[in-house]
Task: structure prediction
Amino acid sequence: MYALVDCNNFYAACERLFRPDLKHRPIVVLSNNDGCVVARSYEAKALGIKMGVPIFKVREDIRRHNILVFSSNYTLYGDISARVMCTLEAMAPRVEVYSIDEAFLDVHGVSHCRDLVAFGGEVRQRVYQDTGITVCVGIAPSKTLAKLANYAAKKYPATKGVVDLSDPLRRRRLMHITPVDEVWGVGRRLAVRLRDMGINTALQLADYNKKALRRHFSVVLERTARELNGEDCLDFEQVAEPKQQIMCSRSFGERIHRIEPMREAVAKYVANAAAKLRAEHQRAQAISLFMRTSMFSDREPRYSNAATVKLMRPSDDTRVLMKHAQALVGKLWRDGFAYAKAGVLLGDFYPRYVWQPSLLDLLEVDPRADKLMATMDAINAKQRGAVFWARQNNGTQWRMKQEFLSPAYTTDWQQLPRVR
DNA sequence: TCTGGGGTCCTAGGACCC
DNA sequence: TCTGGGGTCCTAGGACCC
Result:
């Protein structure tokens, strides 16, 4: 039995935590580079602001309804998320942190001695008391059903934010009135194909012939259908699996026409990715770079290209990765385009202390590398961005837009909220 | 004028092996 | 001219998630 705990309007709720004056006001939070709307308060949803819409398309609504706009403040959201998870871990024996704003709890044991709805209510109350964040709780025998339960807990106010789908009949009633595209694992494309086959509701998917689903689609959708029938098919991952790749990419604040700012941006992305790599205690043997013009402009000539290099030996040394990335910039760069985005991808990982060198491997390792990187990481852990690569040049042209950024209330001494 | 960033898993197809 | 039946590994692309 699983409980899915999901924060309500998480980013918007975080922005409100230290701004009680924003209670009941419509709020939207933008993606990186202030591009699209990625989160909305209830009030903003009620005004018809859609998820994922580019900000320029709703500028008029924002002005007319006096909607408050925020840039993404991941420093804040990450810290609040950690506090929410901390409370959840105190309440359940096993917790899988699934994303920044949701977690699965293993409540197999709880169900023997407690009423699950009462337990869900207690989770809501404790999280609110500890963090000021409101959550909804969905309880069911499979993760996919727990997701569905959570959807119902959010959608139907009468549930008071907790839905228990232990009862198969109750499951069927809910699935009957739930469109198939609300099912976890059914995205836009699949939904279209399913509807073409006459599968419109979650219940129709659950009841469909499993062999046929596998034949027409894939084992993934078959699993989803089984999960809807209460079959527990997905792993519970209490400890996150090591990552298989690490990406750092950004759209630029402004288009880039010269190679030098591109080199600066790539330098920053490599430094970021390498720091993440070291935090995972991994080394990478492959590094890829991509760069491209905007996908949305019809007038400008388009260009998009990517390349990968394989290193002689896996590395987590920013200097080594940087050299390869900069060589790739030279390889991919073409004059005459308005570049909009670039990114660095690290892959082919080996655990830090497991590397079988070849007898013919004559490359010398820099004995100072580990210490140098560790020192940099330690300094940057205390003060973000305190030490950086000269190559980055703190460029302003490519730096992402963050016009509406709120303070890092909880993670920076300089930005603590003040009470007067 | 202005359209995010970071991941995962699965499948198909090609190269290659015995 | 006819030409099996397995297997692995890799990559690209498509789908999904938040």
